[in-house]
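Follow-up to my post from last week.
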Amino acid sequence: MTYNDVETVSRTELRDLQDERLVETIERVHENVQFYRDRLDEAGIDPADVDGVDDLPDLPFTTKEDFRDQYPDHHFAVDRAEVIRIHASSGTTGKPKVVGYTRGDVDVWREVMARSLAAAGVDADDTFQNAYGYGLFTGGMGFHEGVEELGATVIPTGGGNTARQIEMLQDLESDAFGSTPSYCLYLAEQAKEQGVDVRELPVSTVVIGAEPFTDAMRDEIEARLGVNAIDIYGLSELIGPGVSVECVEAQDGLHVWEDHFYPEVVDPGTGEPLPEGEEGELVLTSLTKEAVPVIRYRTGDMTSLTREPCECGRVHVRMDNVTGRADDQLIVRGINVYPSQIESVVLEFDEVAPHYRIDLDREENLDTIAITVELVEGFDGDPDDLRERIERRLRSVLSLRPDELDVVPPGGIERQETGKVKRVWDHR
Ligand code: DLL
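User reply:
Got it. Predicted complex:
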């Protein structure tokens, strides 16, 4: 069900709105943010020459490093008095990226999250248990406010505390649940240990995001939890969760709420725009953000776009499920491979649980890769035979010959109760 009429307007109307909003955004950043003024001036762009989104490819990119360089708030376009909330995203290196929200920004966020939840099949009568972390991370509060805006009931369990989480799911009979995909699997495992079969619980929808995952991983989640798993995407720099979401009707790509966030896909190496349908790096421009507008932000996330009509009736462009980031690509002895490709191959095996890790190292100037997979409960075959079959498959599908392939017993791979799952360990 749609939440806002803008989801089904004509593409011409949508384009007019985008053009108008982009012109305003460019004027605003040029006037209020030194960083953008310098960038646009250096590129010889006069804001008055920007007529609409067709001009975006001429504008300079903004990167994660730019965000960090402006730490803490030099990229803000409004006075701090107008900022009513701050979140931050902690990278693994350097300063966090700090983002601020005006009241208007928070209203937009609530609205796009309500739209996203409605698209995911959550409705006003439902109860939604929110296991995304509350705090500087945008997940917890983003979902919380979206559920309230929709008029559904939110249970703010936040991340972790899994025993309580399971008890709440049972006792308050939530219809929907939100968490990272890895936490869904953790929850199912812990429930089993407590003698609870999560498939018997009333929860029928999980809204998963904040981490890359493959279709194979989603299938595992749906089977283990007995739910429909809907993919939601977003990032702090743009707003948080709620940039795009799958619709329950088609579950075929994520509708980008492009009246607020304009997507482009570019070649990650050259930065050149790619035609519709081709995979590359997602670049996003905010069209309504007040506190922290962003122009052509290089997300690092790999996807492709399609404007083909969707059976749900929404006209908003769809992006493909993000299974990895441009900088995730591993180069092992000349073979380029994404962790998601390894994930797809190992999860083809029914004997393998949806937990794995990849360790990269360097020995005598050569890169090495070790893959560890975990057996499912009740495995009674020959682990050596399984190992050989996985090795053969990695070789034939990806031309990859791991230096080591370890098969460990159920539970042999360490679990993480909170935060985003880490599967690739680079020791180089
Ligand atoms: O992860 C916002 C969010 C919260 C999205 C809850 C969905 C659900 P950040 O912490 O700033 O924000 O991390 C953003 O996470 O650039 C992607 O690399 C990754 N990511 C987010 N959603 C997805 C997804 C939140 N559905 C970064 N699939 C992004 C794959 C995702 N990767």
